[in-house]
C-alpha cells in the first residue's frame, strides 16, 4: 500500500536480448513530454546480463502516466533510428503491445496510478 511519500510503481522489463548498454525507463505524466522529457524519477540501469530487470519508481502521485523503455545499446542517452525512422535499438511502451509506425500517442500508452502501489511488466521489442 502507498504511504505518505506516494505510490511505488514496480516496472519489470523482459525480453532483453543482450547484456549491452543501458536500460532507460522513461516515465511521463503528459502528452507534451511523452518520449521527450521523462520525469526526474525515471531510472537508468546499466545492463550486465540478459536477466529480467526490475526497477522501482517511488513517490508517484495519483494520476495518468505512460512509460517508454529503451535499451540504449551505444549509451548515448537516446533512441537511435534508421534513416527511414524505424528504431535501431530495442524499445517498448506501457500498455501498447506492438510498436506502431511512428511514436504512439500518450493516451494509447497511459495508465492510471491510484492510491495503491502497482506492478507492470513490459517486454522489449527488437525490430
How confident overall, as mean pLDDT? 90
Which structural class do the helices and strands define?
mainly beta
Total domains: 1
Major β-sheet profile: 5 strands, antiparallel
Return the string of H and E elements. EEEEEEHEE
Number of strands: 8
Percent helix among the residues? under 10%
Low-confidence stretches: none
Q: According to CATH, what is the topology?
A: Immunoglobulin-like
- Architecture, CATH level 2? Sandwich
Task: Provide a descriptive summary of the structure in words.
By secondary structure, the chain is mainly beta. It has one domain: Sandwich (Immunoglobulin-like), CATH 2.60.40. The chain contains one helix and eight strands, in the order ββββββαββ. It has one helix at residues 106-109, and strands at 7-14, 22-28, 44-46, 53-60, 63-72, 91-93, 111-113, 118-123. The termini are far apart.
Amino acid at each position: 500500500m502507498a504511504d505518505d511519500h506516494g505510490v511505488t510503481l514496480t516496472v519489470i522489463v523482459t525480453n532483453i536480448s543482450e547484456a549491452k548498454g543501458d536500460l532507460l525507463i522513461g516515465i511521463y505524466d503528459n502528452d507534451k513530454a511523452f518520449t521527450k522529457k521523462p520525469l526526474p524519477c525515471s531510472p537508468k540501469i546499466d545492463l550486465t546480463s540478459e536477466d529480467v530487470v526490475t526497477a522501482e519508481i517511488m513517490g508517484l502521485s495519483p494520476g495518468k502516466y505512460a512509460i517508454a523503455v529503451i535499451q540504449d545499446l551505444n549509451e548515448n542517452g537516446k533512441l537511435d533510428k534508421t534513416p527511414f525512422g524505424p528504431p535501431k535499438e530495442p524499445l517498448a511502451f506501457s500498455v501498447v503491445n506492438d510498436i506502431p509506425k511512428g511514436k504512439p500517442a500518450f493516451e494509447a500508452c497511459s495508465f492510471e496510478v491510484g492510491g495503491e502501489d502497482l506492478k507492470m511488466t513490459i517486454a522489449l521489442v527488437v525490430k
